[in-house]
Amino acid sequence: MRKLLLIALCIPVIAFAQNKKIDSLKQVLADAKADTTKANVYYKIALELQRMDPAQSQKMIDQAMAISQKIKYQKGLANIYSFMAIQSSFKGEFDAMKVYAEKCLQLAKKNNLPLIVAKGYSSLGVYYWQTGSYSEAIKNHLAALALREKLKDTTGISSSLGNLALVYFDNRNPKEAERYALMGLALGKKINNSTIMVSCLQLLANVYGEGGKFEKALQMDAEALAICKQHNDTRGLSQVYSNMANCYTAMKQYDKGLKYQLEVLKLDQFFGDKKQVSDTYMNISAIYTEKKDYKTALDWMKKGLQLSQESKYKQGEKSGWGSISQIYERMGDYKNALAAHQKYQSISLDLINENSNKQIALMQTKFETVKKEQKISLLNKENTIQKLSITKQKTTIAIIVGLLLVSLLVAGLIYNRNKLKQKALLQAQMLKHQDILTKAVIDAEEHERKRIAADLHDGVGQLFSAVKMNLSGLFDRIALPREEDRFLAENTMALVDESCKEVRVISHQMMPNMLLRSGIASDLKSFIEKIDSDSLKIRLETTGFKDRLESNVETMLYRIIQETINNVIKHARATQLEIILKRDAGEISAVIKDNGVGFDTDKPDGFEGIGLKNILTRIEYLRGTIKYNSAPGKGTIVTVNVPA
């Protein structure tokens, strides 16, 4: 598993040796007379030690807590709760982390401490990230970022940028992760904050590593490693070694990968981080799996799974059961593989149910798989089972020996039959699980489209209408003697009127009003009528749609054609578009042909857009096929076939 280190704002590291900073703080503590000053200094020393010496750091924060509670120092308590939330995350104690983060936020809001309010939101963002609730994580990190930008808190801004990068990376959005990480890194270098620099460099190393750019990833690791050693950043060092280990493992240099993972394990055990130790155990297991030492791999993975369960680290628990299922399958133990996969499936569904529909839609690419090959494999296994039979003996010579041989043969065939049945059942379970996840993704997307369309129409659309009415009344009451003023007023009204129309068009495209009442043929005609015919002439021909289709099929087929038309409008630079939609007893076919610029269908980057991925997901769900016939300068023909 990837190891990503959260960026805690509460650890400012400067360019001087950290021991000098601690010595300076201890001198301030010796001279301090006010209890509030002592509490603040103990807190700052604890921060400096948090990434080097967790035991001493805990002693310092305990002193700060004792003084703050005694004198009822609210600001001090709020800061301490923020510190303890991050400390709990390091230890993998996520329930405690949420409690401390909420206490920090409550105290800071009550006492009007906006900088600490931002810390509370940031801590909650880390909690939701660690527990797999990505939409909630982004929501809290954005709240923290907004406050910090308002207060011009440069260090806080860079911290929030780095934390957002972590969430986007875990949510399978490498482009956004890279963008936020680069912004966080630039700001971290500007303020010379080594903690933020190391975390952003390691996030970039993960992005490049997952993209197969291992040399670039190792360059990021090398830069981060130098900073960690310069500032005695032991926790950051753990992360750097882990990323290097993952790179070498991906490059099939398993001995190097194992060497660095064992170094990581020593550091994680020093800090007592259950979550981090769990990740390291699983990473070591993965290396042994690649080396085909499955027994050792299974031992390491079970240790990692146990720690994930103890710390309620759901993502780790899910990954652990998934890996155990794969290890058992490679060992030929299909019974245990099936049992482990069922636990993996159960946790996967739990995580989906815990997240919002928006989160599910964001995670849709995580569940896209090539199911056709699995179906072929499943059919082959079932065919093999059907062909198995017990061969009858053709002779009666040596009856006792013959009976013994028959018994052994029957036992072997029964064993092999059961083994194949278990393997086929495991693959069937996996296919069923993927169908459930795909349907959840598509249903969530349709729900989100309806919600956004309603919000646009009822919210933004109504506001624009009110603005238009108010402006009209205002211009009627105010005399505008100058020609320039009258021209400006007329232009303003025209812009508002155009905005109202644009909002209405977008909301109708998101969720056509007549889709559930008129059927796909009528609704496509309505959609096409809204397109500027001077720019793109569209001819629609439909046959066989007298009766309505099943609701899900109709909705998804409409979305496929709508997305294809939108791609023509945005990319093809076409002047003519022809759509032929037919339905017969066996299947529904759609042919969409344009005279645009076309593209090279042999280049994979032509199929990487979110729109095309959405089309492929729907086609796969409908058990249909889609074919692109195009070449540069020769237009494009898209052929869709789905069962009727």
Automatic annotation (TrEMBL):
<feature type="signal peptide">
    <location>
        <begin position="1"/>
        <end position="17"/>
    </location>
</feature>
<dbReference type="InterPro" id="IPR050482">
    <property type="entry name" value="Sensor_HK_TwoCompSys"/>
</dbReference>
<keyword id="KW-0808">Transferase</keyword>
<dbReference type="InterPro" id="IPR011712">
    <property type="entry name" value="Sig_transdc_His_kin_sub3_dim/P"/>
</dbReference>
<dbReference type="Pfam" id="PF13181">
    <property type="entry name" value="TPR_8"/>
</dbReference>
<keyword id="KW-0472">Membrane</keyword>
<feature type="transmembrane region" description="Helical">
    <location>
        <begin position="396"/>
        <end position="415"/>
    </location>
</feature>
<dbReference type="GO" id="GO:0016020">
    <property type="term" value="C:membrane"/>
</dbReference>
<keyword id="KW-0802">TPR repeat</keyword>
<dbReference type="Pfam" id="PF02518">
    <property type="entry name" value="HATPase_c"/>
</dbReference>
<feature type="domain" description="Histidine kinase">
    <location>
        <begin position="557"/>
        <end position="644"/>
    </location>
</feature>
<dbReference type="GO" id="GO:0046983">
    <property type="term" value="F:protein dimerization activity"/>
</dbReference>
<keyword id="KW-0902">Two-component regulatory system</keyword>
<dbReference type="GO" id="GO:0000155">
    <property type="term" value="F:phosphorelay sensor kinase activity"/>
</dbReference>
<dbReference type="InterPro" id="IPR019734">
    <property type="entry name" value="TPR_rpt"/>
</dbReference>
<keyword id="KW-0812">Transmembrane</keyword>
<feature type="repeat" description="TPR">
    <location>
        <begin position="118"/>
        <end position="151"/>
    </location>
</feature>
<dbReference type="InterPro" id="IPR005467">
    <property type="entry name" value="His_kinase_dom"/>
</dbReference>
<dbReference type="InterPro" id="IPR003594">
    <property type="entry name" value="HATPase_dom"/>
</dbReference>
<keyword id="KW-0732">Signal</keyword>
<feature type="repeat" description="TPR">
    <location>
        <begin position="278"/>
        <end position="311"/>
    </location>
</feature>
<dbReference type="InterPro" id="IPR011990">
    <property type="entry name" value="TPR-like_helical_dom_sf"/>
</dbReference>
<dbReference type="Pfam" id="PF13374">
    <property type="entry name" value="TPR_10"/>
</dbReference>
<dbReference type="InterPro" id="IPR036890">
    <property type="entry name" value="HATPase_C_sf"/>
</dbReference>
<protein>
    <submittedName>
        <fullName>Tetratricopeptide repeat protein</fullName>
    </submittedName>
</protein>
<dbReference type="Pfam" id="PF07730">
    <property type="entry name" value="HisKA_3"/>
</dbReference>
<keyword id="KW-0418">Kinase</keyword>
<keyword id="KW-1133">Transmembrane helix</keyword>
<dbReference type="Pfam" id="PF13424">
    <property type="entry name" value="TPR_12"/>
</dbReference>
